Fold this protein.
Amino acid sequence: MTVSTQDSTPRRRFGGGFKLKLFAYALVAPVVLLILGLVAYPFFFAIWVSFTDMVIGSTGNFIGFKNFEYLAGTATFWAAIRNTIVIVLVSDVLKLVIGLGLALLVHQNLPGRGIFRSFLMLPWAMPAFVAFLTWRVLYQPIGGGINLILNQTGLYAGTVDWLGTRTTAMASVIIASVWRGFPFWFISILAALQSVPKELYEAAIVDGANTWQRFWNVTIPSILPVIIVTTLLSSIWTANGFEHVWLLTAGGPSDATMVFPVLAYFGMQTQRIGEAAAVSVYMLPVLAILVIFATSLMMRREE
Amino acid sequence: MTKSFDTQKPAGWSRRRVLKTAASGLALAAASSFPMPALAQGKKLTYWGGLIFSDDANKLLTDTINAWGAANGVATEVVMINQNETTQKVSAAVSSNTMPDALDMGLGLARLLARQSQFSDVGDLYKKIGDAQGGWFAGPDTASDLTADGGIARVGIPFGVNGNLLLRRKDLLEPAGFTEAPKTWDELVTQAEAINKAPVSGLGLALSNVGDANLQVAVLQSFGGRIADDAGKKVTIDSPETRLWLTWLKNAWDKGLFSPGNTTWDGAGDNQAYLSGQAGFIANTGSVGIAARKDDPELFESSAFSPLPGGPKGIISPIDVQLRAITKASPVQDEAKALLEHLSSPEFMNAYFNVAIYGPVLTNQEKLQAFDGTNTILVGLLGLAKNGTAPAYPDVNNAAFADFGSNFLIPKLAQRVVVDGWDFDKAIAEAQTQGQAIYDKY
């Protein structure tokens, strides 16, 4: 009887645990399959394609690193690297300054700040293609809003080809990109500001800290994690961003505003799928580092 | 104790039942991915038409196909695809095996897909239509022979010729003493200079990374330049003739004749510049004329069409041929052929030419009312059908040339000189290297 009990108990425990595990796996299996199908397969397929000479309608042949070598041998590729870095860095700095400044302003007890806050979100709420086509119209050399303002106010009598000259094209793209993207920074930083405990400020005042010292020693350290995560997310989106460059300049004039996503699109447009995939794969390591860093920071904050 | 445990279970849902249900769901999902038996479906024909700059033409094509379907017991679905997006849509469709039964396309895409054996052989239908309508014009006949690309000569039925015409503002040019169209590129610059006064720019020619800017390939060739040698293998951009063309271009640029913004124009840039009265000359397929005739009759009356000017080596005015093809995988081959034959009928084509922007492909079409001389755009397109040069001529029209054009290397060469201020040697060296890298892939 005793033996029987000793024999049956572990077996039942093992069997029950195994069934429970199986049941758990069965429950998560559809989600895992979905993720594999929608994320992992396209991801690894794109990497595979980048090593082939695939064009429309053919599976392509394995050609090793030829696509990568070809790209690295073109001036446009290096221009895309340079421009992507410039757009990401300059946009992030400007968005940070504008977003932080406006968040600090709206965080004050000002009359009508609710309306002002909603108003500031408008660029973010507007569809990207509408926003950038509007900017394109504003930048038109003849009849464009910006030149009209310059001419009417007497600030400048000539015609500036904002998007058509190398000296102004990149700045014009960045301004439009910052205009569309700063509300995300603004709302993220504002949310962080609202979560800073008042006691910290009160303690700092008791310690004799002036406004600047409170901002530098209380506000900034409190919202820094949010700023870092926002910077990482914004960098990923800007580096991956397509509409702002495509709709404004399509990478031109010459390659003055060429960025990776547009370069990849040219590859797709010209049916050279292998080459287009290689452009994306070139971006992968940098973006992967940013994604992993941002994800780990966000998870740490949640904990 | 056991009873107590049982009462805690959700009523009616045991673990086993959940697993069974999940398994059944997966099995059903897997089963539903298999095609249903054909006999359960009626005959349906999907057609992808090329959306052009004429609503009337797009509607006429759609209505005609649907009416044909209704009369012949075939359910039809017509999807009009923006011609700038045909390549992307077709790429996705080929990859996902969702190609339509028949579609419109240009020669470049047809050549590429013919190499992948995507189309049915329509040689018999091509001959039948040609025999019934006086034969095909030599240009479209030669250009649409794709034997070298997949082994089948006729994978599509030509239905229209297009290419660039020169469109000019005669209301500005005639007071300046220019009553005739410019015959050479140098004359073009002279005339453009005479009317180049803000807000009008003399030359509304794109120099950006779009297909319109590949007009400069034809200009380069008319100056004697070539993209590659006669074998179509070795790139020959680095030549005195290329420098001659660049000299002409730089001279016009330095005079401020080009429309501002033309180095970043999209495909509609020249259209918008002309239609807004900001360009004296543009090279266009005729779509601008159609739009002007409809929306700005005064501008249309003030405009004139002529062939492209020539260079020291003559006129290079390449034609493109629009084709209607049937996909090999289509289950309605006979119906699709019947539709293509119907769409080649003189009645439909006369109506279509009247509202579209294509020149004729069959010799009898010259006698159609559409080409009686009253429509100046169609007169220009008829001239193009008869006298236009073969695609790529004098270069070899191979896949490398198409890839070269898709990379906009000649517009980029122009941009290096006029935007970046590179000297000719440096800019040419870059184009030569990049061009050879493209040709080496084939």
